[in-house]
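Reopening this one. Same input as before:
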Amino acid sequence: MNNLAIYENEEFGTVRTVVVDGEPWFVGKDVAEALGYSNSRKALLDHVDDEDKGVTNCDTLGGNQNLTIINESGVYALIFRSKLPNAKKFKHWVTSEVLPSIRKTGSYNLPGTYKEALQQLLIQVEENERLALENSEMKPKAEYFDDLVDRKLLTNFRDTAKELGVKPKKFLDFLEDKKYIYRDAKGTIKPYSEKNDGLFELKEYKGRYSSHAGQQTLITPRVREVFRLLLK
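Same output, byte for byte:
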């Protein structure tokens, strides 16, 4: 059974979090309601990929309950599709207050590998640079830096196509035609190695509700900006 950490926001209400295997997860219902979704269950089903959500048993005021939880990627998926005018403000609250608080209280496990240590160091450096900009009363530059940090989030092909304003099939056809990606024998999308210079990342995943596992090709901010120009 996992213990919940509760975060309160005057505008967005209560968001419960839990750390699973050293990683932060959010109670999906709380995030969906904070972002203005009228049907939280439908929002999680429609907008959050299976590998980005799961179920955990937690001790709540109503006793032990199985709660649907989502990871950071799932939170960003709900933010991206939210019609709430202040969705960006919610994202800023999560990234500037909630996640740093989890790190500060030691909820994260120590990095187990050199790569994990570098990733955590990068996060800390980015946060320090953002704070330095704000403290220097360089708000416009600080906001621009926040946007750059945001773009470091990986997205799938469907979300990227929507962001670029094109249909997913057209986007995939374009990438295949230009030899950026191909499909392997199982039909899984993979990037060509000679063109994968920071454009794509392969992420291992395992289904939360099934034994299905595999690799998913995700798109980096660099490729989004490149194809935004190419598709104009």
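So the earlier flakiness isn't reproducible anymore. For the record, Residues 106-114, 147-151 have pLDDT under 50 and may be disordered.
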